[in-house]
From TrEMBL:
Residues 35-104 form the Outer membrane protein assembly factor BamE domain. It is found in: Cell outer membrane. It comes from the Bacteria. This is Outer membrane protein assembly factor BamE. Coiled coil: none annotated.
Amino acid sequence: MQKASIPACLAAVTLTLSLAACSFPGVYRIDVQQGNIIDQEDLGELNPTMTRADVHELLGTPITVNSFNPSREHYLYTFQEDGGEIRKQRVTIIYEDGQYLRHEASLLEETPAN
């Protein structure tokens, strides 16, 4: 009976140590950022003479294009520091006949990557 209990005990100890390592407070968590980093300076350079290609050259490729309304493109950016709260910003570019018309923006006060 002792031979069977030793492997079971080793398995229980290994499982306990593995689970404890997952929640250890000293574990380093990386900052995660995704999307297009756009700031107020970039938005200030937009003007009605710009084509869609000009906007893409300035801001990069949009994350999503509205399937139902192709005159709208969305630029999203998210930042999560050290596994904490996810902060988001969103910029929507609106076109008319392939030319930049206007934008709507909800920017972060400070973009951590800059």
